[in-house]
Every structure is written in C-alpha cells, then in structure tokens.
Design brief:
The complex is a heterotrimer of chains A (477), B (453) and C (320). Chain A is α+β, with helices and mostly antiparallel strands. Chain A is built from 15 helices and 12 strands. In chain A, the strands form 2 sheets. In chain A, strands 1, 2, 3, 4, 5, 8, 9, 10, 11 and 12 form a 10-stranded mixed beta sheet that branches. A two-stranded antiparallel ribbon of chain A has the order 6-7. Chain B contains 14 helices and 13 strands. In chain B, the strands form 2 sheets. Chain B has a 7-stranded parallel beta sheet, with helices on both faces. In chain B, strands 2-1-3-4-5-6 form a 6-stranded parallel beta sheet, with helices on both faces. In chain B, α8 links the parallel β8 and β9. In chain B, α7 packs across α14, α9 packs across α10 and α10 runs parallel beside α12. The longest helix of chain B is centred in the last third of the chain and has 24 residues. The two termini of chain B are 27 Å apart. Chain C has 320 residues and is α+β, with helices and mostly antiparallel strands. Chain C contains 7 helices and 11 strands. Chain C has an 11-stranded mixed beta sheet, with helices on one face. The chains are: A alpha+beta (477), B alpha/beta (453), C alpha+beta (320). Chains in contact: A-B, A-C.
Chain lengths: 477, 453, 320
C-alpha cells in the first residue's frame, strides 16, 4: 500500500520478565456483568453501580469478603466529574475491606488491559501481592456537559469579585450556549468518529464486506456456543435481570448481516462496507480481573489460571492519516513478540478486540503484508499469519458488545480461562496473545500463558523460569 | 410474605375478637436468636414409674455434653411453674397399659406449658420381631404424639424421637435430636417422629456452632429456602459454597458475600456438576462435608395435560441431578469424613398434590433416594436424609392466589405457614456431626400439615 | 527573509493605529463615500495601484483577544502568536488601503482567491510590532481583475532598535467581472487548468455549524455580512452564510501543528491557501491533512457529500 516510510516502530529490547527474583503475576479469575445495549437493562445504572456489581461478583466467586486487596485499579472512558475517585468509591461500596486502596486509570478502550499490566508489574516488583484490575463504562448514564460558552461564563462568574463582573460574564452568552453538550466519541483532533476512521483504514486495506460479515457472524456464533457450554458460568455474574450479553444474536448469519446498510465510510470514493452488524454497538458494562502473586493465590486456596507474561503499548500517528486510528496494536505486537522471542505460531489463542470486524481484518492483513511490515514495522518480512481457528474462539466484542473500559477485563479473564483449560487438556503450556486498539491511536498487547502449579506441571513456564530466568529463548517459556 | 393474620390475632384487640368468633388463633413461633435459651422454661422429664431411662435422659440433658444450660426436673412440684418443655421417656414401655401413668402425669402439666413450649417423646420403634404387647405399646406412642401435637396451642409443638436398631439413649444423635426439638430451631416441626438408628455421630464442641470446620455446599442457594439454608449453615459455623444456575448469579453473589462463602454458578444437570462441586469445595475450602440438595423446580400440570418437556425438566433437576451428584460424592475420597447429604423433599412427595405428578415423582424419588443412599455412607459415618417442607412463605408461594394461600397457611396444627429458616434449621440439624445416627430418614417441616401422614 | 523590502512604495502613510474592519466595510459599501469604486460613476481609464505604503506602529496583541483566537482555532493557549492571528492583527492595515478612493477595484464583491503567509520566526505576544501594507500585481484574470495585498510585520531584534521582518502575507483578491484598461497582462492571466477534483482519504472532518462565521467574525473583526447569517448573506447573493476562508486556512494551520514553538522549531513556516468553492454554513467539511513535521503538510478541504473542493494549501516549515 502506498505510504511514506516512517521510523519503523519495532526496536527489540531485552525481555522484561520475569523479575530477578522470579515473582510472577498470576490471573486467578475474573468477573463481569453481562454487557447491555445502551439504554437497555442498565439504563439507570451508573459506572459506580456496575463496577461495584462486578467487584461483588468477583468477591463472591473467590470468597474475598472483607479481604484487603493490594490495590484495585480500574477506570471509565465516559466519566462524570463527580466520579473522580470512581474505583475507590466502588471498593467502598463493595464487599471488599474498606482498607483496600484503589486508583482510577484511563486509556480509552485499553483501560482494562493497561490496568492488568500495571497491577501485574506492581505484583512482580513485590509492591503488592494481590490486585483487581478492570473497568466500567456506560453510554446510558454518560455525563452531559454544558456548552463551552456556558462553561467559560460560569467559571468566569464564579471567579468574579463583583455582581457587575458576574453579570458581565454572562453577557456574552448566546441561546445556543444553553444547550447541553452531549458526550463525543469523535477523535478530538480529527472530528472523525472511530467508525469513520476505521472506514478509511478498511478502504486502505481493501477489506471486503463479506469478510467483515463472516467475522461478525462467527463472533456471535462462538459467543453463543460458549455460553451454552457453560464457559461463562464462572466469568459472568448476571446484573439487573440481564443474564447474557444483550447484544448477542445466536442466530446471526452472514446472510442476515449482508442485508444491513453501510453506516461508516459512506462518503468515501470506494464502496462503504461497515454496517451496524459488523461494528460494535454502544454498550454498558463492567469487568474485573483478580491478579495475584502465586504465593498469595496459594495462601488463599485460589486457582491460578494463567500468568501475565508481558505487555506492550504502542501509539500511531493517525492524526494526519499516516496510520489508521486503530492500528496501534499492529505495532505493539511485533515489539512484544520480539522482546519475548516469540512468533505468531507460538500462540494457542488470539484475542483481538473486535472494535469493528474490519479492525481485526486490517490487523491481520497488515501482519501479512511484507512491504508494510518492512517499512512501517521495521521487520525483515511479514510478521506472519494468524491461524483463524485460534482467533476469538469464544466470541469477542462484536457479539458481546464493548463498554470501552470493560473490554480489557473481559478479554483477559476469557483468555486466562482458555489457556488454563487448554493446558489442563494437553498437559502443555498454552499461550494467548491479546490485543486491544484504543482511541487516540493507542494500542495495547499482552501475552498470557497457562500457569498451573509448577510443581504439578513439569515443563511449565513458571518452573522453567525459576530454573533459568530470563533466557528469553523459546524454551524458557 | 409476612403473615398479618398471625400478628393480628396475637395483638390485644385482635386476640379477643378472634377468641370470641372462634377463629383459629395461631401462636407466634419461637425462633432461633443468638443467646436465647434452649427452652422457654424448666424441662420436666417424665417416664414410667421409677424409670431409670427417664433418669438417664435427665442426666443426659444436664451433662456437659448436653449443654448444661437447662433447668431439668424429674417431677412437677405442683407450683405455678411454666414448663418450657416436657420430655416423656417411653422407651421402656412393654405393654400399652404402661402408657397410662406418664401420659396422665403429662396431662397434669400441659396447661402449665409455656407458649412455644415443647413436648418430646422418646420411644422405641415397633418391629415385627417384637412381642405383640411391646409392639403395641411402642406403636401407641406414635398415635399419642400425633394427636397431642394437634392439641397444643400458642406455638407449642410435640415431636418424638424413636430409637431403632442399635441405637440407645446414649447415642449422640438422641441428645442432638432432643436438643433440636426443645430448641427454637424446630419451630415449624410438629407432630413428627424422628428415628435414631445408630450410635454414630459426635457431639459438637459448641452447640452454637455445630458446623465449625465443616465445608457445606447448598444448591439452589440464590434465594428462598436455599439462601436461608446457606445462612443457617454459615451461622452454625460452616464454610458454605452456594450453588445456583448462572442466571441466578446476582442474588447468589449477594448471598455468598453476606455469609462470607463462595458462589459457584452451575447448572446442576450438567454431566460434570458433581466433579465441579467437589473440585470447588476441595480446592477452595480444603474439603467437602455437607451437600444440601435444595435446587428444585415446579412445572405443574394435570397429568392429562402433561408434556415431555414439563415432565423431564422437573425430574432432571429435582432427582436425576441429585442422583448423579451423589454418585460423584460417593466415589470421592474427599467425601469421607462423616459426610452429610441432606435433600429437599416435599409433602407433595408424601401426600401427593393435584397437578404435581411430575414434582411428586421427583420428591417421592428423593425420599427413596436418601433411604437407599444412607446405608452407602454408613461405613464412613455418613448420612443421607431428606427434609420435607410443607407450606413455606417464599417468593414462590407468595404467587399463590390470596384465598388459596390463606387456606393453605392454616391447614396445619400451627395454623400458619413456615418460614424458609424453619426448613434451614432442620437441614442444619441433619447436617451436623451430632446427627450421625439419623440416616435415610425424612424430617417434615410442615407444622403437622393435615395433608399426608 | 531579507530585511530589505523590495516593491514597497517609498511613500509611507502612518495610520494612528490599526483601523477597525467594521468601519472599513462601512466605508466600502455605504453610499455617500466620495467615490464608490466599480459602482457606476467614472471608471478610471488608466487604472493603477496607489503608490503608497500604509504603516501602523506599536501594534501589540491583546492577551484576552489572543486567548479567544487560540481557543476558537484549536491553537494551544500560550504566548506565541499563531500566523493566523498575526493576519487578524495586521490585515486591516491592508484593508484600509483597499478602501482608499483611488484604489482601482471595488472592495464590495471582492473574492479572496489565495493567501500566502511566510513567518520568519516565533512571534511572542508581548512583542511590539510594526505593520506595513501595500498593493501590487494588478493583472487581468479570466473572471475579472486580480490584485495582491502585501502585509509585512516587523519586530525588533537584538538590543537596539533594529527591526526584522517576522511575518509577511500576500493576499490575492479577484474583483469579479471588473476589467480595467491599462492593466498589463504580465500576471497570471491564464485560467488555472482545473483538473477534476478527486477526493483523497479524509483525515478529519470539520462539523461547521451556522454560528461558525459569527464566531470567527468576533475574533477576527471581519464582520463581512456574508459570513454572519443566512439573511445577510442572501443580500449579497449567497444562499447561506459562508465560512471565512481564513478561518478554514487558520484551522488547517492549527491542526498541522507546524509553526508552533517547540524543541528544534524556529517557528518559521510557509502557509498557503487557495480557495475554490465557498463553504456554505452549516457544513460538514471533509479534510485531508497529510505529511509530517519535517517536510510539511498538504491540506485540502471538500464537501464530503458532493465531492467539491473548498480549499487547499500547504504548511511547510521554513528556514529561519
């Protein structure tokens, strides 16, 4: 594809994990509430309500009542100013010990995954033994702000020293300033919505409508099958009467999806391909993941599903069209793989967040494109091909929905259970690659792998690490 | 769910009106509160003249194991004592004529029984191998007990302990059953005879926390009776795993957090449900001692209108799942430390109910299941028993039309519906280590419902 | 940029200050002005530009005005004068020239064809600036006659009173349908070969509401009625209000980020715009701004639905 070469973004650094004393951050499990469509089951629930519900479900699942957790880190993308301490307030309302500290974090759609990586690092450093990472987002209860004009006038008036000055502050107001400003999900620097941005990327990579619809249908079918098989029995706790993700259409099919009109990219010079069916809908929900040191998990008789191996965050220059808004994970993953001496063939599962079907397909196409990988990623050739049978095997955001900050927790818990289940079946270490794109041209990728008790599973990553830390070779994992 | 009628007729004006009109005047049941005494007054132990067995029972109640928190007397003093309970020891009767003395003595003190008082008989089971006179005397106790229960008022109850097989008065379960019947925990158990069939079972270190150190699983624990069972087991000291279908997860989590247990969302009809339950209990709580099969559904339909789906779903959840889970439990080395299985039956399974052939099949099935499962657990000092609730105030029964519900509420000796906690108390008792001598039985929690036996 | 100023008429008329644009417009369109150019009356037979340079000294930015401009255009709020703000500050001096009775073209109905700004270095908000403006390049255009207005801004450098040119703008205007004999054909007479416009991939979208013109008018002082409301615009033959061309150019400049102060940046920049179809308000303008900081950005804006070009230009970092 035609693009001017930029500084390649892949510069391998030495492997980051494990820490010198071999401490691991392990994923004990997760919990989320089913995701609701905007204005649906959670129309009256706030971010704090939903995050508290997700925490309480986690507490119930793992018997953490009154437990003092090392730290709870979560966030929301659409956040009220009153929720400046959203996570701490949620903790106080939960069954956790009120002595559990917390802080808010926000990295758009990557909030949840970044929270997992952050707490994992603290655990590996030995600063904390246990943590809960996650996020919540509501479209239904999103903040509505006053217009910029009114806001400036109000601020000026509140700082004014005299009545006259106060009156003067309001004198400049126009009727239009009194209309509330609805929250924008447009990119501030471009004015384009995420869908419009993706439509440009979709056109650039020539992703077909058929491929997008097929991916969307597969997402619904996979998620429905996983629910039916009980896969989510220990990952989801119903909330406000909602038992499964409201967006899930078990009977979704390529034929049905093909009937939907395109909604993004309709003013481009190429045919529009992105529909409401192959794009994620606006969604409400919350998710949390319990991460701990292995010792803490053992001391509390808690299971260990997986360990957080490593994470990488990338950002791309999308503002002037050099790279697609949602393509940052394309850059993050090769850096992450290089640092850990892994290739795409080393993964049993790929959890690539389905912001849009086309996002996933553009990502895969980019990794297969030799020229792009050379000029943009600084690789010698294509990064490789993702085995589609290993991709989003229990569905992803297209079916489940995507409450921005809650998606990371959903995916991490899902991937952890997938690798644990696979490892239990095969006796081999199973590994998953997670990638989540985010607003602002951000993208976060992470590697997790199964981490059953090392004593019970010879050859697992953990025991190998302890025996020969930081070799960085394939064999060490 | 509250029974306003019971409060009304126990208030000043309501009481006199109800008395004058001859309306039923159900008593307020004495229910468990922390620190409440076992009985609401002194306990009088009666027996056949010069009965050493009555002396033994009195001693038992006074012993350290018995709790020694009771004022136990062997004779009525003829004063104005309001008796908290009367224990009638009839285990040594050999002829129906032996019943006269103790029963007439009881007759003399009945009017002095405190509200919420207790009459407990202790007798031996009549068997075909007994001499006819012995069998007649023993079986006569049955009739006495059931009739007396219908005569008592003001929330008082009468229940009997029946010794069978190898059990004697010293069996730990006799004391445990006696304490249960005397206590507020048996509030809605009335007119029932509970058989102690062996000397198995151990008295707890603390009668307040008989389940200390035990790990219990309760299915269908998200709400109603199941939630009450979970709360009661936790109150009694157990670490509780609450299980319910994933769809009930929100309330299930709330119950788990309330009782500091863990929530396990599980469809119990899944093929690996038993393994999942065992694995969760063992890996998270270090073992599994008590399983309460409470989960159940109703899909009422006259048999003439029955569909395969309605029939099969009820049988699958209410009995087949229990059978499959029990099979896993019986095969598990984890379930070998005086394990307890308590299964929820129903008076419908005993007496039948119109429109409930499927439900009654499953609940009758439960009764048969525990009778046959109990012996399989005996060699690890385990038991399997059933609790059969009568009309209990729950979300489910609150949906019954008002008139029908009012009638159903009064159709028992206590003239009111039970509460979920009443069922839970019976379950907790059967789950306790001291109840090891009670095996394969059914304990009804029905206020001596007129329906059925 | 050289400090010697070629082409600047040596006759200098110093204004008492920067004139207000409102008054200038009024003079241009109201009857009673001694001679309303192009509106009847006697046409100058041998048209020529006034041989005079207008000068305004001691021009200093009003900090509150600067903040309002920075907020509206999306420039960072700091003490650097954006190139577009300097235009707002200085252009009235050129406008004053255009409303002179001896200016050969009528101001009313004049179309802004293009604008080129060259900034030599970062200009701070507390700098005392001097503005010079003159006209040049009166040439025939296929649709009339065009003229260039040159505006130069100088500022002190070093310790003494030496002045350097820090900003230079050339605004090209077209007097539609106006022909003047004696205007040499030396300029850009040929019609630009208008290749059909094919929209590129957009990189941004500007949702311009009906108040866009009023808001820019408030910070620029350019209250030309065609920008203020549909009603006033209709009076001048436009179906709706149109966005200020310099607003669109200044926004593209702001979004490119070139010319801002920063590490390794002198603030030197060349910023151009050519205007095609006017932006009728309200409007959703598709914009493509492509390039990078080192080699500069090309930008183009168009009507997303009709695919008609509104404007294009470039923002290139200059040598300081």
């Amino acid at each position: 594809m035609p693009r001017s070469p930029q500084t390649p973004t892949t510069t391998p650094r030495p492997p980051a994990s494990p820490t010198p004393d071999g401490r691991e951050a392990v994923i004990v499990g997760g919990n989320r509430i089913p995701f609701a469509r905007a204005g649906g089951a959670y129309a009256d629930a706030s971010n704090q309500d939903m995050l508290t519900a997700a925490l309480d479900g986690l507490v119930a699942r793992f018997g953490l009542q009154d437990a003092r957790i090392g730290e709870v880190v979560a966030g929301s993308v659409l956040k009220h100013s009153r929720d400046f301490n959203l996570v701490r307030e949620s903790v106080l309302g939960s069954a956790l010990s009120p002595q559990t500290p917390a802080y808010d974090l926000q990295q758009a759609c990557a909030t949840g995954l970044e929270a997992v990586i952050g707490v994992s690092n603290k655990i590996r450093l030995g600063q904390i033994d246990s943590a809960i990472a996650g996020g919540a987002d509501t479209i239904s209860d999103a903040p509505i702000a006053v217009s910029e004009g009114l806001r400036h006038a109000l601020l000026k008036a509140s700082h004014a020293k005299s009545l006259g000055a106060r009156m003067k502050a309001f004198a400049s107001l126009r009727p239009a300033d009194l209309a509330p400003a609805t929250p924008r999900t447009d990119e501030p620097r471009t004015g384009l919505s995420m869908g419009e941005h993706q439509a440009i990327t979709t056109a650039t990579w020539g992703i077909s409508r058929e491929d997008q619809d097929a991916l969307a249908a597969a997402s619904h079918q996979h998620l429905a099958a996983a629910y039916d098989a009980g896969f989510f029995d220990d990952l989801v706790t119903p909330y406000l009467g909602l038992v499964r993700d409201a967006n899930l259409r078990p009977d979704s099919s390529v034929e049905k999806l093909a009937k939907l009109p395109p909604v993004f990219g309709t003013s481009l010079t190429v045919p529009a391909t992105m529909t409401a069916g192959n794009s994620t809908p606006l969604t409400d929900g919350a998710s949390v993941v319990l991460v701990a040191s292995r010792d803490w998990a053992q001391a509390h008789d808690l299971p260990v599903l997986a360990r957080v191996v490593d994470g990488e965050t990338a950002a791309v220059d999308f503002v002037h069209g050099h790279e697609g808004l949602l393509m940052a994970p394309v850059h993050a993953v090769p850096r992450l793989l290089a640092r850990n001496s892994l290739t795409l063939d080393d993964f049993d599962f790929f959890e690539i967040h389905e912001a849009f079907a086309a996002t996933v397909l553009s990502t895969l196409a980019a990794w297969e494109d030799a020229e792009y990988c050379r000029t943009e990623l600084g690789l010698d050739g294509p990064l490789g091909t993702v085995d589609r049978s290993r991709l989003n095997v229990v569905g992803s955001s297209l079916a489940a929905g995507h409450p921005f900050a809650a998606t990371g927790g959903r995916i991490v818990a899902t991937a952890a259970k997938l690798v644990a289940t696979r490892a239990a079946e095969t006796g081999q270490v199973a590994r998953a690659l997670i990638s989540i794109c985010a607003a602002g041209g951000l993208g976060v990728a992470a590697i997790i792998e199964s981490a059953a008790d090392p004593s019970g599973q010879p050859g697992s990553g953990a025991s190998a690490d302890e025996a020969a830390p930081a070799t960085g070779s394939d064999g060490a994992w | 769910m509250s029974d306003t009628y019971v409060s009304l007729v126990n208030g000043g004006l309501g009481r006199s009106v109800a008395t004058k009109l001859g309306l039923p005047r159900p008593g307020v049941l004495r229910r468990h509160t922390p620190d409440a005494p076992l009985a609401p007054g002194p306990v009088l132990v009666l027996g056949t003249p010069a009965s050493t067995e009555a002396d033994a029972v009195a001693q038992l109640l006074l012993s350290a194991d018995g709790g020694s928190d009771l004022d136990v007397r062997r004779a009525a003093a003829g004063d104005a004592t309001r008796w908290g309970a009367v224990v009638v020891v009839l285990s040594d009767v050999v002829h129906p004529s032996d019943l006269a003395a103790p029963m007439l003595e009881l007759s003399g003190v009945l009017r002095s029984l405190a509200p919420g008082g207790r009459v407990v008989t202790i007798s031996r089971a009549a068997a075909a191998s007994d001499s006819p006179a012995v069998a007649a005397a023993r079986q006569g106790v049955d009739g006495i007990l059931r009739s007396l229960a219908k005569e008592l008022r003001a929330g008082s109850t009468a229940n009997g302990i029946v010794l069978s097989d190898g059990a004697d008065l010293g069996a730990p379960s006799v004391l445990a059953a006696l304490r249960f019947f005397l206590s507020p925990r048996s509030a809605f158990v009335d007119g029932q005879l509970l058989t102690v069939s062996s000397t198995a079972g151990t008295a707890p270190a603390s009668w307040d926390r008989p389940l200390d150190g035990r790990v219990a699983v309760v299915t269908g624990a998200a709400r109603g009776i199941g939630a009450a069972i979970a709360r009661t087991l936790a109150r009694d000291g157990a670490r509780v795993v609450v299980v319910d279908v994933p769809a009930a997860g929100e309330s299930l989590a709330a119950v788990a957090n309330e009782i500091r247990g863990t929530a396990l969302q599980l469809d119990i009809t899944a093929a690996d449900a038993g393994a999942t339950i065992i694995d969760h209990a063992v890996s998270r709580h270090g073992g599994l001692d008590v399983v309460v099969h409470n989960a159940g559904i109703t899909r009422d339909k006259l048999l003439a209108n029955m569909t395969p789906a309605l029939w099969e779903s009820v049988l699958a959840v209410n009995i087949s799942a229990q059978l499959a889970i029990n099979e896993a439990l019986l095969a598990s080395p984890a379930f070998t430390h005086a394990p307890r299985i308590v299964s929820l039956a129903s008076t419908s399974g005993i007496a039948g109910n119109r429109g409930q052939t499927n439900y009654a099949a499953s609940k009758g099935g439960v009764i048969g299941m525990v009778r046959a499962t109990g012996p399989l657990l005996a060699d690890v000092d385990g038991t399997a028993n059933a609790v059969a609730p009568g009309f209990i105030e729950t979300e489910m029964t609150s949906r019954i039309p008002f008139a029908t519900r009012e009638v159903a509420r009064r159709l028992n000796s206590l003239q009111q519906a039970g509460l979920p906690v009443d069922v839970a108390e019976a379950v907790a008792f059967l789950a306790s280590p001291a109840a090891g001598g009670i095996n394969g039985t059914v304990l009804r929690v029905c206020g001596q419902n007129l329906v059925g036996a | 940029m050289d400090v010697d100023l070629p082409g600047r008429p040596s006759t200098v008329k110093t204004l008492p200050g920067v004139p207000g644009l409102g008054g200038l417009y009024a003079r241009a369109v109201l009857p009673g002005w001694p001679r309303l150019p192009g509106r009847g009356g006697e046409e100058p037979d041998d048209a020529s530009l006034p041989e005079v340079t207008y000068r305004a000294a001691d021009v200093v930015a009003d900090p509150e005005h600067l903040v309002r401009y920075q907020r509206l255009l999306g420039e960072p709020v700091d003490d650097v004068l954006p190139a577009g703000f300097v235009h707002v500050l200085a252009f009235p001096v050129a406008m004053a020239l255009m409303v002179r009775p001896d200016f050969p073209l009528p101001l009313a109905g004049m179309v802004h064809l293009a604008n080129t700004v060259t900034v030599a270095r970062t200009i701070r908000s507390d700098e005392r600036l001097e503005v010079h403006a003159w006209a040049r390049g009166l040439v025939p255009h296929p649709r009339g006659t065009q003229v260039e207005l040159v505006t130069e801004v100088t500022a002190r450098y070093g310790a003494g009173d030496a002045m350097e040119v820090v900003w230079r703008g050339v605004s090209t205007y077209l007097a539609k349908g106006v022909t003047r004999s004696g205007v040499g054909a030396g300029g850009s007479a040929a019609a630009p070969a208008s290749a059909p416009f094919t929209p590129p991939m957009p990189t941004a979208r500007w949702a311009l509401d009906a108040g866009t013109g009023r808001r820019y008018a408030a910070v620029s002082g350019d209250r030309n009625p065609i920008h203020l409301s549909a009603l006033t615009a209709k009076a001048f033959g436009f179906p709706r209000a149109i966005a200020h061309g310099m607003y669109t150019a200044a926004r593209a400049l702001a979004e490119s980020g070139v010319g801002r102060a920063g590490a390794g940046r002198s603030g030197a920049v060349e910023w151009t715009v050519e205007f095609a179809k006017p932006v009728l308000l309200p409007s959703s303008v598709a914009v493509s701004i492509t390039g990078d900081e080192a080699s500069g950005f090309e930008y183009v804006g168009w009507d997303a639905r009709r695919g008609k070009e509104h404007f294009r230009g470039h923002v290139t970092p200059g040598a300081s």
